Each structure stands twice: as C-alpha cells, then as structure tokens.
Amino acid sequence: MEELAEVPGLGGCLSALSEAELTQASALVKAGQADIFAAWPPAGQADEEKRAFFEQARTLDANYPGGLAQYISISNARKLLDAATKGENSLDGWSPSVPSTGVDLAVGSDACCLLERRGLEEVAACCFVIPAGGLGERLGFNGVKFALPAEVTSGWCVLEVYAAYIRAFEALSSSRAGPCRLPLVIMASADTAEGIRRLLAEKSYFGLSESQVTILLQEKVAALADSSARLAMETLYKIATKPHGHGDVHFLLHSSGLLERWLAEGRRWVYFFQDTNTLYLGTLLSTLGVSATQELEVNSVAMPRRAKEAVGAIAKLTHVDGRSIVVNVEARWRTTSWSLCSSPQGTMRATPMGQTASHPTRGTRTVSFSRCLSM
C-alpha cells in the first residue's frame, strides 16, 4: 500500500485503517477518487467518521454489479458522462423502422380467446414483479402510488386491484389443476418501503398470503459531482447518493436468490409491470398465450400511440454494421428525423406488438412484458 502513503490526506490515516479499508481506499484511488481524502485529518482524529465512510462505501460497492469502481470506471459512468459532454447520441448509426413481427390482438376476438385459454394453462407457472420505488408526488398524491384510488365506484386502491387479479388467477388455475399460489415481488425504495408495508398490513395483504409477497429494497447509488465522474460528497465523510433506475429489479431478483427458487419450483414466467395502471393484468392471459405458443423468451405488450405523443415507442433499430434490435425508445431520444411511418406528422408511432424485446417506459402508458426464466 505504498502508493497510498503519497495520497494527500489519506497518507496520514493509514495506521488507523483495517486491511479491508486499505483495500477499499486503494480501489477508490485507482478509480480517480483521491481528491475525496484531501481534507482528512491524520490518524487519531475523526476515526469513527472514517470507518462510517468505508462502511458506506462497502454498501455502495455491494449494491452495484461489478462494484463501486466499475460504476465510476471508464466503461460506465465516466464513459457516459464524457459522451454527454461531447453531445454524442448513443443512437448514432442506428436507423429506426416499425417492427414487422408481432401479434395484434382484438379484445374478445376468437384469436384472443384462444390465446387466453392457452395462457390459463401457463398462469400457475407465473410470477409477478412490480418496480415501485417512486412516490406519487408527480400525480399530486402524497404517498405511495399503490395507495392511489383506482376508480371511484369501488374506491379500491391500485394495489388492491392487482391483488384481486392475482387471487382470480389463482382461483382459475386451482379449479383446473389443483392448488395454486402465485408469488408477488415488489421492488421498493427507501422512500416507499415503509408506506407499502404499512398499506399491506392495514389491508391484511388484500387477501394474499403474507408469505407470497416479497419486498425487495432498491438501494441508492453514489451521486457523481461532474463529468469527470468524481464522487459527490454530502459531507467530508459521507458520499452523496441518488435513486437508481427500474433496471435494478433484475439485479435484485438474481442477488436475492428468488430466480433460483422459482426455477426449482417449476416457474417459467415473470410478468413485470408498474405501480400506476390497473389495466396491465387484463392482458396477462393472452400475453402468456402468445409467449407459450411462440416459445418466446421476452414478450412486450404495447398500445397504439398518437404521433408526437411524449411516450416511449417500440421500434426496430438497425445499425450500419448490420446489427438490429427491437427495443423501446424513450421519447427524449426521438427526433423529427425519425420517420417510422407514413404519418403526415413524420414521427414515431408504435402499434401493439407481441414478439418484441423492450424495457418499460415511465408514465401511464408503461410497456409491460413477460419473461421466460428458462433461457
């Protein structure tokens, strides 16, 4: 650790640091974070605060795939910040088009009913996952979005409607193939975890068994101070943090061991949806039917969008080197030059798609998708 002795501020603290703390300090220095130690006093002063710093750094390191160094390295944050500073567009070289594959289902049609019956055969092998890390402030609601009233007739809240659907799927499956219990996973954040737990407890889990509901806590990630990817410091010994994205749900499902458990139980499908729209589950059975019939690994559900509507759209992107992908493109990345159809407005337009791979967009028109575990 001789190189650490030359780091301003840190060099005078080495004698008070454990082996694990020295290793962490070395990793941070190699990641270009030596400046955060510059004002540290020597060993014997503020030692407890320094230990708290390294404890927080350990938590942040464990909460990101590849660790804290990977998060701020050239392959992640620093590369993205550098590209943003230069005004680079991550979609340069990609040309958009309307996907040619997919299934356009009319509700109530013979084809839709047939696929729903096929989905009913699969629903016992399904798991339900909801990212719910945000509060309802944008919607003018001071609380977790699960507690929002779904409609005025019954007064049911959003989570109550979701639970009723899950209980109905269980009853349908049980009547055909014996007892069925469908797991529900909610990814909460520090902002929403307490409110969600309180809502579930007050309403007796809306008729679900407490054991079938799992709450995974989405941890925050380190905030960055500038385009050089320097860690932002809340205090001399505390790294500033910020919420991360919905993609954390996949990391948490894996790191929690739930995926392995579900596979061992014979589960085959995961249905991802968000916490602000009670229409999602109305398409579950037909979505499962399409997924099973076509043996899909990822299947998205989309809806028609109006031209120039500020929501994400599913598009096929083809690169100049021949690569192609069908993916959800967020509204902020679209430009008027992206003409995907003969619309007189000349903007992207998505139609209902079945065989597509995408990530959920935010807002009331969120794309939901089911995913096969047996990849």
TrEMBL record:
Reactions performed catalytically: a monosaccharide 1-phosphate + UTP + H(+) = a UDP-monosaccharide + diphosphate
Entry keyword set: Nucleotidyltransferase, Transferase
The protein's name in its UniProt record: UTP-monosaccharide-1-phosphate uridylyltransferase
Top-rank taxon, per record: Eukaryota
Organism ancestry: Eukaryota, Sar, Alveolata, Dinophyceae, Prorocentrales
Entry EC no(s): 2.7.7.64
Cofactors named for this entry: Mn(2+); Mg(2+)
Organism of provenance: Prorocentrum cordatum
Pfam families: UDPGP (PF01704)
Region (Disordered): 344-363
Family: Belongs to the USP family.
